[in-house]
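Hi Y.,

Following your request, here is the sequence exactly as I used it, all 492 residues.
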Amino acid sequence: MFVTAQKSHPKLKYKDLRSFLDLLAKSNELHEISAAVDPELEITEIYDRIVKAEGPALLFKQVTGSEFPLAINIFGSAKRMNLMLGVGAVEDVAQRIHSFLESKPPQTFIEKIQFLPKLKELDALNTKIVSEAPCQEVVRTEGPMLDLLPVQKCWPKDGGKFITFPLVITRDPETGKRNVGLYRMHVYDNRTTGMHWQIHKDGAEHYRRLKEKGKRLEVACVLGANPLQLFSAACPLPYGVDEFALAGFLAGEQVRLVKCKTIDLEVPADAEIILEGYVEAGDLRLEGPFGDHTGFYSRAKDFPVFHVTAMTHRKNPIYVSTVVGRPPMEDCYMGKAIERIFLPLIQKQLPEIVDITLPWEGCFHNCLIVSIQKSYPQQAKKVMSAIWGLGQMTFSKSILVFDQDCNIQDLKEVAWRAFNNVDPKRDMVFSEGPIDELDHSADQDFFGSKVGIDCTRKLPGEGMQRPWPEDMVMSDEIKELVTKRWREYGFK
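Below is the corresponding structure, written out as tokens. Let me know if you'd prefer a different format.
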């Protein structure tokens, strides 16, 4: 029993970014480019063609203006997501989380033996501090810093060059709890960038809690982190929950951290490049415009200025980047994995939910599709209301709810049932509330309307005055007969 339980842990075949790239190369999931490329627009166009063709990760070894190679599209396929998580399928992680949540305190000796792997998972939620680290092989406090990086200008009307895939680490000024997020950084010069903390993000809350003008918040930015840490930073965790704890849980071992050289923060020891610095209350600058993941430009607005106090890095660091834009891009594959992994947590709060999906065309916040086990009238509307009060799902502009027998991962079936099952007056619910900052359709920032659509079969208790029709489905006997005789009909 003990051996069986141990198999629930992932078997990661890498320990940092560069060993992950080696794993991708061995798996035919990496393409190296030795020709010189321009980080202004050219890399984006190459990447965009590759990611939309479901092609490999890319390693640009000669980027104009920098000695550092650039890796991109490391998450842009289902296979690479599975390699990153160390599983055969993302659903394996969801099952592991479900099993962890359902664990009960052991009573008998056998149960205690079986519980030992769970103790290891609990221990992995902690971090480990080390005194020396590869990310500090080179320490720079003067001279060229940001100017050394192969930072991209991604789209023609972007406001400048943007660091697009940094792990940004801060601590709550009031509680001291750490947050690790992914926030783009508009590079202004060798020592300053913008810090794109949207109003609803945890980093923005840390900044607001400074309160006094001129007070500083220390910030560390990791460029080239372990892919599992990048993924964990993208996950919608509750406020105050450490993303490194999730990374440790997913890896099955503690994240190794080292203290920064000029600020009082810890950063991943095996990272490639670290930017140390601070933001200051009241110190704002125009950031953007920026070609965003919706496929449209987000407009320029004032955001905090990040001041670099030091840059540390490996002797031969690799810079990691991404590009967002009209889907599909590699963030779509990350979003699909998050959707599958976090389903058990959602089901803990809403047990009638069978499945969820966030179609890529909805850009994460514009459309959420749900299937439920319907037990009573108006249950679909109850689910809509609950979702609009559930963490980052509050930003869902449209929610479509279906019966449990609808395969909501098949958008053709979703459309067929929605177009046939919905009476607009009876089944559409309108609401108002917070919306994603990138929702350009609303009249004002941060607030707008939402719609819920009940696509389930209607019950008499919902006012249905005639029988609901049955789905047309062929009998299993005929299906099996035709399958056996398929070649007799002349088909291959």
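The first helix runs from residue 2 to 6.

Thanks again,
Q.
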